[in-house]
Structure formats: C-alpha cells, structure tokens
Amino acid sequence: MSQFFYMHPDNPQPRLLKQAVTIIQQGGVIVYPTDSGYALGCHIGDKKALDRICRIRNIDKNHNFTLICRDLSELSIYTQVDNSNFRLLKNNTPGAYTFIFKGSKEVPKRLLNPKKKTIGIRIPDNNILMALLAELGEPLMSTTLILPGNDMAEYDPEIIRDNLEKQVDLILNGGYLGEKPTTVIDCTEETPQVIRVGEGDPAPFT
User: Fold this and answer.
1) Where are the domains of the chain?
2) Which of 11, 116, 128, 194 is deepest in the core (most CB within 10 A)?
3) At 144, phi and psi to the nearest 5?
4) Which CATH class, in words, describes the domain spanning 3-142+150-163+178-199?
5) 155-188 pLDDT, tens digit each
C-alpha cells in the first residue's frame, strides 16, 4: 500500500519532501506532479525500480526515458549540449518542454535510447517537483504516467491512487492538474527540431 502525501502547491512541506527523498533513495517508485500532468519516477541508478515502472506502464527498454533536472548545471552533466542550445534552454526553462540530447557517460546505459543513445531532459515549472529535486540533489528518472490502454497522462491524484496504490510506494498529491503534454524538441542535430507541439511554445525553436 502506497503512502499518499497532500502537498502544498506553493510551499511544499519540508518534512514530507525528506520522506519522499528517503523513499526514492531506498529504491521506491513514486508518482509526482509536473507542469504537464503526473509522472512516475525513481532513482537514476536503480534498475529494479526502473523495471517496476516499465511493468506499470507496460513499456520495454526501448522506451524514451527522461531525466528531470533542477537547473541547467545539472542538465550539462548528463547531456552533450553546445553553446547555442544552452542559450535556447536558458531562455525557455523552466517550462513544459522535453529536450532530446545525446547522453553523456553519466547517464546509465539502460536509460538511453538503445539506437540513438539519447535521453530526454526536462526542467519543469512546478514548485513541488522543484523542491523535491532540491532535496534529492540529483536528477530523477522519469516517465509520464500514462496507464496501459490510455494515450493521455493521468492528472487526477485520487484516480491515480485508486489505480496504483498497490503498485507504487508514494503518491505526491499536487492537486488536479489537467492534461497538458510537453512540447518535444530534438537537440541532437545542429538545428533543433520540434517533434511534438504541446503546452510549451514551439516558436523559439523554429
């Protein structure tokens, strides 16, 4: 049975954040709010937790995983980002974007796209998640919470609780979010390419 924390949207409770980080560090799988619906997350180095997430979502190792980063300094550790892309990201983060980059040696191979060796990177605009990352002190392995048979991210924490309370260790209730997919930008080539238009404004990348 998972724990269920009601988080303050503007001033997340430090005590609950510390408990959440402990759960992550001990191999737990958590559900947490972003600026584009809810997501599943675990420690970046935990293979067993990642395998659990794959079973929950019914996805395989070829899925495109994402690292949720607190800021650009973290992003630059885990990706190969040049100066022009760095400036673009600096001007457009945090926000509802997923950026695709070639992964650095710091990214576990199992998280990289097996063919392209890429990784998704996000710096979301969500107070609860930013506070959680600050407490964790490193990126969080993440994938959007889309349940098998669905094509939209989950956005209602009470429905998530009904469906997943026996499959995850913690649900951070950040309120009813609405379903807002990210805009996906491929930054692996010299010129960024918009792969999917979502909540983030694609104009700066076109």
Assistant:
1) 3-142+150-163+178-199
2) 128
3) -60, 140
4) alpha beta
5) 899 999 999 999 999 999 999 987 789 999 999 9
